[in-house]
Design goal:
- By secondary structure, the chain is an alpha+beta fold.
- Among the domains are: about 280 residues, Rossmann fold, CATH 3.40.50; about 160 residues, Methanol Dehydrogenase, Chain A (8 Propeller).
- It contains twelve helices and 42 strands.
- The chain has an eight-stranded mixed beta sheet, with helices on both faces.
- Strand 25 and strand 26 form a beta hairpin.
- The longest helix is centred in the first third of the chain and has 18 residues.
- It is globular.
- One of its GO terms (molecular function) is serine-type peptidase activity.
- It comes from Fermentimonas caenicola.
- InterPro entries: AB_hydrolase_fold, Peptidase_S9_cat, Peptidase_S9B_N, Serine_Prot_S9B/DPPIV.
- Keywords: Glycoprotein, Signal.
- Pfam families: DPPIV_N, Peptidase_S9.
Length: about 725
C-alpha cells in the first residue's frame, strides 16, 4: 500500500474512532447532555398570573403570564415579620392571594407523599407563624376556595385552621399509624392511583369531604435497614399483595359550622376503591368516583353531602379494565362535564350533561387522546394532547365543545407536552425530538408563542459536538407474525457494515408504556456504543398509543406476548448482516427487569446475556391495584400467574444473567430477587447477582449510578 494512502487511511480511522468516543458514561450520568427544565410554575386562580420561588428559595414572586414580568412579591424571608428562617423548600398560595404557606424540613414518606413543617404567612400583615401548634409535621395542606381556612393531616388525622379566628381544631380523632388514615392515602393508592390526598372543600366553604381508609387488615411488609449500624433496624408498612386484603374505604363529610360528620351512602363493594372525590360547582353535589376490585367497572355518584343520598351519574364497564388515570379527565362545568373513554377502541373525549346524559363524542379517529389538559368553561374550550400523527409523537390541540373542530396548538413535530394555567388561559409547552433537547415555550390559549423560557442551546451544542448518533427507525414483526412493532437501532459513529456487532436490547414493555418515541433522551446506553456494542429498542404488544386492543392485548397473561415479542425482535436483529446473532443481550428495570427474565426463559436461547434490575419475579409478590388491574387475583386467574411467573420458568433460563436489586425497595421488594435466586439454585442455574445496600427502587445517590452502570456495561462487554 502507498505510504501516503496508508497514513491518510490511518488518519481517517483515528478521526472516526475519536468521533465515536467524544462522550463518556460519566458525562452522560453527570448531566452534561441532560436538558434543563424550568422552575415550577404555579398558576393563580384567575389563570392570568403565576407564582415562582426565586432561585435561592427565599421569596414567592407573582408574575404576569402575558409579559413574564414580576408584579408582586407575596412572601420574602428577608422582609416578613417574625420569620426565623432563611429559605424554604416549597409553597402554596390561597386563591385570594392573602395567604401563603411555605414548608421546610421535608420528610419523604413514599414516592410522592411527604410531611414537613409548614408556616403561614399573612400577606396583608406581612407576618409569619407556624401553621400548627402540634409537635408533629403536617401533610397535604388544602386551602378552602375563599382562602380563609386550610385543612391538613397530622399523624393520620385531619386538622382545620381558620385564619380569621386564629383557631386550630381537630376534625378526626381515630387516626393511627398502619391502621386508620383520614384524608391522606395508603401506599397502594399513592403508588397506583397517583394520589396522596382524598380531601376536598365544598365550593361554598361550608363542608370538608374526605375519605377514611382502614388498613388494619392489610398485611404488613417488613424489611431490614442497615445504615452502617451495629444492629440493623426494621422498616414496616402496610402493603397489600395480589389477592390479599385491601384497605376498606368510606367517604365522609364534615360540616364545618355544626362540626357534624356524616358518612356518605355510596354503593361500594367491600373491597372496592374510591380513587377520587371532587365537588362539582354545586355544593350539594359531591362526585364520588369508585372502581370495583377488578377495576373493570367505574361508577361516579353525585352525593348530597347533607342527606348522604347518592345518585349514579356515570357507569362504564370494560371487558379488560378501566384506566384510572382517566378519572383526572373529568372536569365539571355548570351544566356538563368531560370524560375520556376507550369505548370506540381508542381513547377519546366525551361530553356529558350534568345529569349523566351523553351529549356528544368530542374527538374521534384511529388515534389515542393521551391527556386531557385543561377546560375553559367560559369559552367551552377543551385542551388535550394526542398521538394523532404517530404513536411516536404528541401534539397539543384545543377544541370548542359546540363547534367541534380541533385546532393544533403545538408548532413542531416531535414530542409535545403542555401544562396549562387555570381555565386554559396560557400554557407552557415542552417540545423535543430525538435530536433536540427540550425547548420550553410559553403560549396563550390560541397557541401564539409569547416567549422562550428555556432553549437548552448549550446542551444542544454539546450534544451535537459529542457526535451522538441518530436513532434509526426499524419495524419488527411481532411473534404473532402479523402485528408490526415500532423500534429503533443505534450504531456507533465509526460503524462498519462489513463487521458483525453484538447488540443490547433496551426495553420496559409494561402495559401502556413507551420507549420508542420521537423524544430527546441522552441515556446511559449510548455509552455501549463506545464499547462496540449496538443498541436497539422495540415496543412490543401491550405498549401505548396504539389503541385499546393493542394496549390491552396482554390482559390476564402478563409476560407472555411481551417476552415473545422481544425474542422475535432479537431474531430479526440477528438476521441483519452486521449483527452477530450469537451475541444479543437484553436489559430492563422494574417491569423491564421482569421481562428480561421472561425473555431469557422463553426465548429459546436467542439472548446470550441479560441484566435485570429490580424485577418482579412473580406477580403474587406485587401490589393489588397494579397487578389485579391487568391479571385479576390469583384466585381468579391462577394459570395466568403461574405462566407469567419468572420463578416458575427459572429452570428454562438460558444465557448469562446479572440480577441487581436494592435491599430497601418498598415497591418491588427485594423478596422478588431472593425467591428467584432460590429457584435458580434449585434448578442448578448459575448466574451473577449484585445488591445495593439500603437503596430503594431507583437505586440512586452518592456514587451509586456510576457504579451501577459501570457494572452493567462491563457485564455486557464480558458476556457478549
Amino acid at each position: 500500500m502507498n505510504k501516503r494512502l496508508f497514513l491518510t487511511a490511518l488518519t481517517v480511522i483515528c478521526f472516526l474512532t475519536l468521533q465515536a468516543q467524544k462522550y463518556s458514561l460519566y458525562d452522560i450520568l453527570g448531566g452534561k447532555y441532560s436538558a434543563r427544565g424550568v422552575s415550577a410554575i404555579v398558576s393563580s386562580a384567575d389563570g392570568m398570573h403565576y407564582y415562582q420561588s426565586d432561585p435561592a428559595r427565599t421569596a414567592v414572586i407573582k408574575y404576569a403570564y402575558a409579559t413574564g414580568e414580576a408584579v408582586d412579591t407575596l412572601f420574602s424571608t428577608r422582609t416578613a415579620r417574625n420569620c426565623n428562617f432563611d429559605s424554604f423548600q416549597g409553597f402554596l398560595v390561597s386563591s385570594d392571594e392573602n395567604r401563603v404557606l411555605v414548608y421546610r424540613d421535608r420528610e419523604q414518606i413514599y414516592r410522592h407523599s411527604f410531611k414537613a413543617n409548614y408556616y403561614y404567612h399573612d400577606v396583608r400583615r406581612n407576618m409569619v407563624r407556624r401553621l400548627s401548634e402540634q409537635p408533629s409535621k403536617q401533610m397535604i395542606p388544602t386551602f378552602s376556595p375563599d382562602g380563609k381556612m386550610v385543612a391538613y393531616v397530622i399523624d393520620n388525622d385531619i386538622w382545620l385552621t381558620k385564619f380569621d379566628f386564629d383557631t386550630e381544631s381537630r376534625v378526626t380523632t381515630d387516626g393511627e399509624l398502619n391502621k386508620i388514615i383520614n384524608g391522606a392515602t395508603d401506599w397502594v393508592y399513592e403508588e397506583e392511583f397517583v394520589t396522596t390526598r382524598l380531601m376536598e372543600f365544598s365550593p361554598d366553604n361550608r363542608l370538608l369531604a374526605f375519605v377514611r381508609t382502614d388498613e388494619s387488615d392489610v398485611e404488613e411488609f417488613t424489611f431490614q435497614t442497615y445504615e452502617e449500624q451495629l444492629y440493623p433496624e426494621y422498616y414496616k408498612f402496610k402493603y397489600p399483595k395480589a389477592g390479599g386484603k385491601n384497605s376498606t374505604v368510606e367517604c365522609k363529610v364534615f360540616d364545618i359550622e355544626s362540626r357534624v360528620t356524616r358518612v356518605m351512602d355510596v354503593p361500594l363493594d367491600a373491597d372496592g376503591y374510591i380513587p377520587r372525590i371532587k365537588f362539582t360547582n354545586n355544593p350539594e353535589q359531591l362526585a364520588v368516583m369508585t372502581l370495583n376490585r377488578n377495576q373493570n367497572r367505574f361508577d361516579m355518584y353525585f352525593v348530597n353531602p347533607r342527606s348522604t343520598v347518592a345518585k349514579l351519574i356515570l357507569r362504564e364497564e370494560s371487558k379488560y379494565y378501566i384506566d384510572s388515570d382517566w378519572l383526572n379527565s373529568i372536569h365539571f362545568m355548570d351544566d356538563k362535564f368531560t370524560y375520556v373513554s376507550e369505548r370506540d377502541g381508542y381513547s377519546h373525549i366525551y361530553i356529558y350533561g350534568i345529569t349523566g346524559t351523553l351529549q356528544k363524542q368530542l374527538t374521534s379517529g384511529n388515534f389515542d387522546v393521551t391527556d386531557l389538559l385543561a377546560v375553559d368553561p367560559n369559552t367551552s374550550t377543551v385542551f388535550y394532547e394526542a398521538a394523532d400523527e404517530s404513536p411516536l409523537r404528541r401534539n397539543i390541540y384545543r377544541i370548542n365543545i359546540n363547534k367541534g373542530e380541533p385546532q393544533k396548538l403545538s408548532q413542531q413535530p416531535g414530542y409535545n407536552s403542555a401544562t396549562f394555567s387555570e381555565n386554559g388561559k396560557y400554557f407552557v409547552n415542552n417540545w423535543s425530538d430525538q435530536k433536540t433537547p427540550a425547548v420550553i415555550t410559553l403560549h396563550d390559549a390560541s397557541g401564539k408563542q409569547l416567549r422562550v423560557l428555556e432553549d437548552n442551546r448549550d446542551v444542544r451544542e454539546a450534544y451535537a459536538a459529542a457526535g451522538f448518533p441518530e436513532r434509526e427507525a426499524i419495524t419488527v414483526t411481532a411473534n404473532d407474525g402479523i402485528t408490526k412493532l415500532n423500534g429503533w437501532i443505534l450504531k456507533p459513529a465509526d460503524f462498519n457494515p462489513a463487521k458483525k456487532y453484538p447488540v443490547v436490547m433496551i426495553q420496559y414493555s409494561g402495559p401502556n408504556s413507551q420507549q420508542v418515541v420521537d423524544k430527546y433522551n441522552a441515556a446511559w446506553y449510548y455509552a455501549l456504543l463506545n464499547e462496540g456494542i449496538l443498541v436497539a429498542c422495540v415496543d412490543g404488544r401491550g405498549t401505548g398509543a396504539r389503541g385499546e386492543e393493542f394496549r390491552k392485548s396482554t390482559y390476564l397473561n402478563l409476560g407472555i406476548q411481551e417476552s415473545d415479542d422481544q425474542a422475535a425482535a432479537a431474531r430479526y436483529l440477528g438476521s441483519l448482516s452486521y449483527v452477530d446473532a450469537d451475541r444479543i443481550g437484553i436489559w430492563g428495570w422494574s417491569y423491564g427487569g421482569y421481562n428480561v427474565l421472561m425473555s431469557m426463559s422463553r426465548g429459546n436461547g436467542v439472548f446470550k446475556a441479560g441484566v435485570a434490575i429490580a424485577p418482579v419475579t412473580d406477580w403474587r409478590f406485587y401490589d393489588t391495584v397494579y397487578t389485579e388491574r391487568f391479571m385479576r387475583t390469583p384466585q381468579q386467574n391462577n394459570s395466568g400467574y403461574v405462566n407469567g411467573s419468572a420463578i416458575t420458568l427459572a429452570d428454562k433460563l438460558q444465557g448469562n444473567l446479572l440480577l441487581i436489586h436494592g435491599t430497601a425497595d418498598d415497591n418491588v421488594h427485594f423478596q422478588n430477587s431472593i425467591e428467584y435466586t432460590r429457584a435458580l439454585i434449585n434448578a442448578n442455574k448459575h448466574f451473577d447477582m449484585f445488591f445495593f445496600p439500603d437503596k430503594n427502587h431507583f437505586i440512586s445517590g452518592e456514587n451509586t449510578s456510576r457504579y451501577l452502570y459501570d457494572k452493567v456495561i462491563n457485564y455486557f462487554k464480558n458476556n457478549l
